[in-house]
Amino acid sequence: MGWELATFPAALLGDVPDLEGVDSSVVRPGEPIRITHVLDAVEPRIRPDGRPAFPTVDKAGAGRTNRLDGVVVLPCLDFMDEERPLHEQESLVDMAGPGAELTPFARMTAVVLSFRPQPGIGNGAFEEEARRTTLRVAEDLARPTLAAEPEHVETFALGSVDEGLPAVAALVQLSDLGPLYYQYLYGVPVGDAGLPRIVEPAELMDGSVTSGEYHWAALRNPTLFFQRSSLVRALYREHGKRLRFAGLVLMRGYEQSAADKQRAAEAAAELAVDLGAEGAILTADAGGNSHTDVMLTCRACEEAGVRTTVVIAEMADPDATNPGLTDWVPEADAIVSVGNADELVEAWRPERVLGGDVLLDGTPAAEAGPIPVRNYLGATNQTGQLELTAVTW
Amino acid sequence: MVKVVHYLNQFFAGLGGEEAAGTPPTRLEGSAGPGRGLAAALEGGEIVGTLACGDDYFAEHEEEALSRLLELLAADGADVLVCGPAFGSGRFGYACARLAAAAPIPALAAMHEENPGVAATEGRAFVVPTAANVGGMRDALPRMARLALALGSGRELGPPGEEGYLPRGFRRNVRADKVGAERAIDLLLAKLAGETRTEVAGGFDRVAPPPSVTDLSRALLALVTEAGCVPQGNPDRLPAIRAQGWLRYPIAGERGLERARYESVHGGFDVTLANEDPNRLVPLDVVRALEDEGRIGRIHDTFYTTTGNGTPVAASTRFGREIATELRDAGVEAVLLSGT
Q1: CB B253 within 8 A of CB B305
Q2: B309 has a chain A CB within 8 A of its CB
C-alpha cells in the first residue's frame, strides 16, 4: 500500500488565524526581514481521513497526507528570564541578504508566529503551549487542501527489489538532553520513547517526529527537515536502483552516562544488523556529546560488520587549523561534512525584524553582524538536508 | 610595483655548501641565485633584497635567526616575502616555513608537498608545491611569481587549486552540487565497493603522557575542571558557553565545595544534580579525606575552572597550556581533571 503524500500549491494558504498571545505575520522570499528566536520550522499538513497530522497515538506513515508546498510555519519565542537548567541558543532566519542562502526557509512563504511572554507560567509550560499551538496552526493552514485537487501525489512504498543490491539503513539520531533540548516521537520526549527502535521510513516523514530542541540553531533538525527528509526521500528514490533501502532506526542523542552511551550504540548497531543492513548512514542532531553517541554507534556498527557513513557538522575556528570535529573514532573514515558552523556570515541590515528586536547576546537584531553560521536555523543540519559542505583552504 | 624580499639558504644564495651551513642571517642587495629567474617572472614586481641564512644556523638558533631575519625584512619595507624553493630539503624547507609563518607581511614558501616544512607553517603562510628536487626549478619559479604578485597586491585569493598553493588547513563553507544525504549515499556505496573517501578527516592531537606519579602520598595534587564551577553568583562572569578564558579560586582550608557557595554555570548539560552538590563537579570533599588519610600528599590551594562548551579547539588548547604552566610552576605533580 504505502503512504501517499499529496502536494498542493502555496496559493491555497488562507488567512492566518488570530491567536491570543501571538503576533502573526506572513513574509515572503526576498523581503528585507530578519526573524529571530525561531524555535522550529513546520510544513502545513493535514490528513483527509481526519486523523491528526502530528499524531501522538495513531501510527503515521499510512493512508494519505496533504501538504502545502513552499510554506513554513516559524514559531518565535523569547524565553523569560528565569532559572532553567539548559539555555536556548539564538536562532535566525533571514529572508534576504547573505544569511538567506543558508536556510531553505528563506525561499518559502513563512507564517511567523511570535509568542508574547506570559509571566508566571514558567518556561516549560510556555514552550509546550507554543509547540502545540504551532503544530495546530500548521494543520489549520493546510485545511483548504481538503477541498482542492493536488498538483501531484507521491507514493512511498518499498517493494521487493534485486537482492544483489547493497542493503542500506538510515540511523537517525534524535536529541533528548533535558528541558528545551527535546525532540519528540509521537509527542513523547525521545528519551522516553524506547530508542533505539525501528520505525517505518514513511513514519518519519509523516509528522511522528517533531522538534523542541533549541541548542545551536544551525545544528538543529527542525520538524520540517523530518517531514521533507532529503535522506529518507533519497533512499526511497535509490531503492531498486543502486541499493536496497533496508529500513530506518531512530536512536537517541545525549545518552547521559558512558555506559548508557555504549549500550545504546551497540543496541542501534544490532537493529541495523536485524534489518539486514550491509551499510548504514548515521545522522546527528545538535552538538557536543551527541556527537560521541554518533561516533560510538559508528564504531559499534563497523564492529558488527555494517559499514558506515557519518553525517556531521564541523565547529572549526575559522582562523585556526585545528580539527573541527567534537569527537571522532578511526572507524569514521567516510564522513559527510555539512559545513563549518563557526564560519562568520557578513553583516546585513534588515529593514524589519520579527520575533524579537534584541538577540540573546544583547545586540540589536537589526544591527548584528557578522553572525556565525551556527545561529542560522538548520544551516548545517546533520541529516544531510542541504547542500552546504566545508572544504580545506 | 610589488616589492618582494626573497629568502634562500647558504647554498642557493651562493655563500657556499655544507661548510657554510653555519652562516648567520645576512642580506644581499637585489636578487641572487634562483632569485634572478624569479625576478624575470615577476611582471610588475621586483626583488628588493635577498635574505640568506645557513641551514644549520637556523636549525640550531631558530629564535635568534628568526628575530634577525624579521629585522632585515622590516628594513626593506616589502609587500611580500618569498621563501625558497626548498624542494625536498627538510632543513631549508623548515626554515622557509618558519620565516614565512612569522613574517608580518604576506608570505609564501615553496617546497615539495611532503617536505616537513609544510606542516611547520601551521597554516599561517602559503605553500607553493614544487618537485622534490632542483630539477623542478624552471616549473616552480613562474608559479611562485604569480602567487607572490597576487599576495603583494592585496588581491583576495581564490581556492588553493585555482591559485596554486597547498590547502592551509582552514575549513571554508562552500555549496556542493548535491545535498548531504545524496553525498552520504555516494560515500557509503563507494565504501561498500571498496573505495573509502571522506569529506573531512578526523584525528586529534596525541599528547604524550608524562611519567606516572611515583608516590601520590607525597605529591601536590590540583583540581581542574571544565564543568563551569564558580562561586555562587558567578562574580567573574564566566560564560555559560564559548568561554574566552579560565579562572582560579582559592580552596585552602575548605573541606568541600558547599552548595551555598558554589554553582555550575555550564550551559551544555542539565546542572540540577551538579548544583545539589558542587563536589560532584570538583570532588574536593573526597580528596580532602584522602589527604587526611595520607594517601595524597597535599591539595593545591587553588582550583582552576572554565566552561568546556562550544569552545574552539584552538582556544581550549591555549587554556590548557596556560593552566599547565601555572601548575608546573607551583610544583603540582598530579591533576584531577573533571570533565562533563
Answers
A1: no
A2: yes
Q: Which residues of chain B have pLDDT under 70?
A: none
- Which own/partner pairs from A270-276 qualify as long-range (CB within 8 Å, at least 24 positions apart)? A270/A304, A271/A196, A271/A197, A271/A198, A272/A169, A272/A171, A272/A246, A272/A301, A272/A304, A272/A306, A273/A304, A273/A305, A273/A306, A274/A198, A275/A167, A275/A169, A275/A198, A275/A246, A275/A247, A275/A249, A276/A167, A276/A246
Name all domains of chain B by residue range, CATH numbers in brackets: 2-163 (3.40.50), 216-338 (no CATH)
- Whether A112 and A77 have beta carbons less than 8 Å apart is answered as no
- Tens-place pLDDT, residues A373-392: 999 999 999 999 999 999 98
Distance CA B186, CA A242 (A): 10
Q: CA B174 to CA A388: how far, in whole Å?
A: 6
Q: Quick one: pLDDT at residue A351?
A: 97
Q: What is the structure's pLDDT at A305?
A: 98
For residue B123, give the nearest of A321, A334, A343 by CB distance: A321
State the alpha helices, DSSP H only, in A213-338: 223-227, 230-238, 258-274, 289-303
Contact (Cβ atoms closer than 8 angstroms) between residue B109 and residue B83: yes
Task: Give the separation between CA A61 and CA B328, rounded to whole angstroms.
Answer: 61
Does B1 reach chain A within 8 Å, measured CB to CB? no
Task: Name every chain A residue with its beta carbon within 8 A of the beta carbon of B159.
Answer: 391, 393
Out of A87, A178, A231, whose CB is closest to B240?
A: A87
A236 CB neighbours in chain B (<8 A) are: none
CB B118 within 8 A of CB B127: yes
Q: What per-residue string of b and e applies to A148-164 under the rule 16 or more CB within 10 Å gives b?
A: eebeeeeebebeeeeee
Q: Are strands A344-345 and A371-372 parallel, antiparallel or unpaired?
A: antiparallel
Beta bridge partners of B172: A391
Report in angstroms the alpha-carbon separations of A85 from A181, A259, B264, B275: 10, 23, 10, 10
The pLDDT score that the predictor gives to residue B183 is: 98
- By C-alpha distance, the chain A residue nearest B175 is A388
DSSP per residue, B32-71: -TTHHHHHHH-TTEEEEEEEEE-HHHHHHSHHHHHHHHHH
Read off the C-alpha cell for A27. Answer: 513574509
**Lookup: cell for A307:** 559499514
Nearest to B282 by CA among B241, B230, B240, B334: B230
Concatenating the DSSP letter of every residue in A335-346 gives EEEEEETT-EE-
Looking at residue B196, its pLDDT comes to 97
Cβ density class A99-109: b for 16+ within 10 Å, e for less: bbbbbbbbebb
Q: Which strands form B298-305's sheet, in the order they lie side by side? A: B247-250, B298-305, B220-225, B334-338
CA proximity to B220, closest of B117, B308, B291: B291
Q: How far apart are CA A175 and CA B43, in angstroms?
A: 58
pLDDT tens-digit map of A318-337: 877 777 888 999 999 999 99
CA-CA distance, A282 to A28, in Å (whole number)? 34
Q: What is the mean pLDDT of chain A?
A: 95
- The Cα–Cα gap between A209 and A189 comes to 10
Size of interface A-B (CB pairs under 8 A): 204
ipTM above 0.90, yes or no: yes
Of the listed ranges A50-54, A347-351, B308-312, the least confidently predicted one is: B308-312
pLDDT of residue A304: 98
